[in-house]
Amino acid sequence: MLGLHIFGEKVYWECIQISNFKFKIRGVNHRELTFIVIVLGLVGGFSYFNFQKSYIRARDVQRKNDLKHIATALSSYQYDFGYYPPSREGKILACGSFENLRTCEWGADTLRDISDLEYPPYIATLPNDPHQSRNLARYKYISNTQNFQLYASLESKNDAEYNENVVSLNLDCGGRMCNFRVTSDDKIQQLIDEIEGVLDENEEKK
Fold first, then answer.
1. How much is the pTM?
2. In what order do the strands lie in the sheet with 87-88?
3. Sign of CA pseudo-dihedral 59, 61, 64, 65
4. Are 113 and 97 spatial neighbours (Cβ–Cβ below 8 Å)?
5. Comparing C-alpha atoms, which of 57, 80, 73, 82 is closest to residue 150?
6. Which of 69, 138, 141, 200 is the most exposed place for a label (fewest CB within 10 A)?
7. SS3 helix, strand, coil % of the chain, rounded to 5?
8. Which of 80, 87, 138 minimizes the C-alpha distance to 112?
9. Measured between alpha carbons, how far apart are the two ends of the chain, in Å?
C-alpha cells in the first residue's frame, strides 16, 4: 500500500500491480459459435444484397443516359443530312465508307460524316450496354431513315421507366427482352417542350 497525508489524516491507496491479475479467456461453445456465424452471414448477405441493388441501379441509369446521348447524336445527324441513318441487324448503318458501308459497332465506332473526316463527330464512341462484354445484353437500333427507335433492357422491373408496352413487342436486346425505348418522336417532343419553356420565360420577363 501507499500512504498519503491529507489535512492531517492518513489516507491509504492500494497499489495493485497488473501483473498480479490472471486473465482467463473462456472458449466459445458450439451454440455461441453457431449464433455468431448466423449473425455474420445475415449481415454479409444483407450488405451483398444492397450492393447488388446499387450496381443494378447504376447500370440502368447508364443505359438510359446512353440511349438519350445516342438519340441526341442521331438528331444532329438528321439535321445535317435530312434523314436518320438506316439500321441493319439492330445497329446503325453509317460506318466505314460510301464504297464499303457497314454497321457501327457499339462501344467501338464513331458516328460521324464519313465523307468529311475533319467534321466533328456526332458522337466520339457509340456507347454499349454495361453487360455487352459478357454477351448478356446490347442496345438495339431500328430506323427507316424517317424516324428511329433505340432499345435497351433494364435489369430492374421497379425502374420508373421500365416499359411493359416495349416488353410486349418481344424484341431481343442481346439475350434479354427489351423493356426501355427512346424514339425520334421523343426527341421532337423534347425540342417542343424546350421551345415552349423558352417562350414562357420570355413572356414572364415582359
1. 0.70
2. 87-88, 91-96, 101-103
3. negative
4. no
5. 73
6. 200
7. 40, 20, 40
8. 80
9. 92
